[in-house]
C-alpha cells in the first residue's frame, strides 16, 4: 500500500501527526485554530490524541529554535477528521486510514505484536536473571564459608580470622583487627590482665570462647595462659559484618 502520510507505530497503537494531516488535507486555516475547532467534535486528550512539543527552526531563517505544539492522533480520530472535511482529499485520506486499521487488526499483525511482546518479556526476564546470577556468584564464596563454618565447631585465632577477611576483600591484618574489635566493644581495651579478652556482651553473643592452657615452668610452678578464640558463630558474624561494604 502506498504511504500518503507517515504512520507512527512506536506506541501501542498507530498514530499520525496532526500537522502532517493538516498539510495533507490542504487546510487553509492555521493549524492551532483548526485543531481547536476539530476538538469541539468531542475528541479527548490522552484518549484520542496526545500533545507533543518539539523544537523547530524559525521561519525567518535564524538558527534560534522555537517550540511548536503538535499532536499524535489515533487513526480513528484522523479518520473522523477526514470525513468532516467533505473534500476529495479528505475522502482519499479516510480510505487510506481505513486500510491502515484493517492491516493493524489483521490476524497476522495481531500475532506479530503478540510475539514481539512475548520476546520483550523474555529479554527482560533474561536480563533480570543475569543480574541475579551475577549477585549469587559474587555471594557464593561468602555463602560457602558461612555454610562450612556453621557445620563446624572449630574456633580459630583472631589472626586466622584476619586472613579469612583479607581473602574476602577486607583490607585488614591481625593487629588492625584486634584494634577494631577493641574500638567496637568486642574486646576489653583497658590495659591489665583482661586486655584483649572478650567483653561480657560479645561472650553473651557467643562470638568468642577463651582457651585456657596450663603452662609448667622450669622451677616447677604452673600458670594459666588465656587465649581468645573466635567461635564458628563469631566467624560468620564478623565476615558478614565486615564484608558488607566490600
Automatic annotation (TrEMBL):
<protein>
    <submittedName>
        <fullName>Phage antirepressor KilAC domain-containing protein</fullName>
    </submittedName>
</protein>
<dbReference type="InterPro" id="IPR013557">
    <property type="entry name" value="AntA/B_antirep"/>
</dbReference>
<dbReference type="Pfam" id="PF03374">
    <property type="entry name" value="ANT"/>
</dbReference>
<feature type="domain" description="Antirepressor protein C-terminal">
    <location>
        <begin position="135"/>
        <end position="242"/>
    </location>
</feature>
<feature type="domain" description="AntA/AntB antirepressor">
    <location>
        <begin position="16"/>
        <end position="87"/>
    </location>
</feature>
<dbReference type="Pfam" id="PF08346">
    <property type="entry name" value="AntA"/>
</dbReference>
<dbReference type="InterPro" id="IPR005039">
    <property type="entry name" value="Ant_C"/>
</dbReference>
